Each structure stands twice: as structure tokens, then as C-alpha cells.
Amino acid sequence: MRLSSAVMFVKKLDRSVDFYTKLLTATVTACDTSAALLVGPGDYQLYLREMGTRAEHPLGAIGIQYLIWSAETLEDLRRCETLLRELTPHVTAQTVDGFDIVEGSGPDGVPIVVVYPGPEKLPRDQIIPRIYTW
């Protein structure tokens, strides 16, 4: 079994569609005035639903806090890092247990984490310390 879809509430749909299609190299397969469906190269699906500029996403609340994306190549990871740096100056890059991690924020301030290689190429056997610091 594998995760096939995620739903993300966003403040501004157009801005988020632009960002996530670039970051994830995804294609918009359906869109209306308040929601869009993005499909990535691995056939995963990301639904974006506009909630308005007053919507909040409290860190530490129950529910999914952020997703960790896997880049296909190290060059793809660097592309993601460059895109994140265009959006926010608060981007970090580090290597932990043999894999590279880039962290930044999406257009609504939601944490974005991209790793290389993914767990299918380098299985994880411990919890990364970073999840305890948010």
C-alpha cells in the first residue's frame, strides 16, 4: 500500500497551483474556482482547496503538519531548493544519515521538506530529529 493523494487547504488557489506545479513538476488535471487537482510524475495526487486569506494552519495541532517530498535526482533537489529560496529566505539544506534534506516554506507558510534520495532508494531506520523541533 502507498499514499496516493493528499489534500492541502491553501489561502490563494492560483498562487498555490503555480508554486506546487513548479516544485513537484505536476500537471493540473482538474480545476474550478476553489479547488485544483495536481498529478505528479509518480501518479500521486495533490488536491488544493482555497480557504481564503484568513485561514490558519496552527503548527502543533492535530492532523498532518507537512508532507516530505522525495526528489528523483540530486539535481532535482537543488532545483527545489532554488525555487524555495525565491519564495523565502529561510531555507536550510543539510545531510542526515546519508540523505540530503532541503527545508523551506510554501506560499502560505506551510513547511516544505524535500529529500534525496527517497526511502525507496535509502530506507530509513530512525526518526529524523527535525520533526521534534517544530
UniProtKB/TrEMBL annotation:
Residues 2-117 form the VOC domain. Pfam families: Glyoxalase. It comes from the Bacteria. PROSITE patterns: VOC. This is VOC domain-containing protein. It comes from Subtercola boreus.
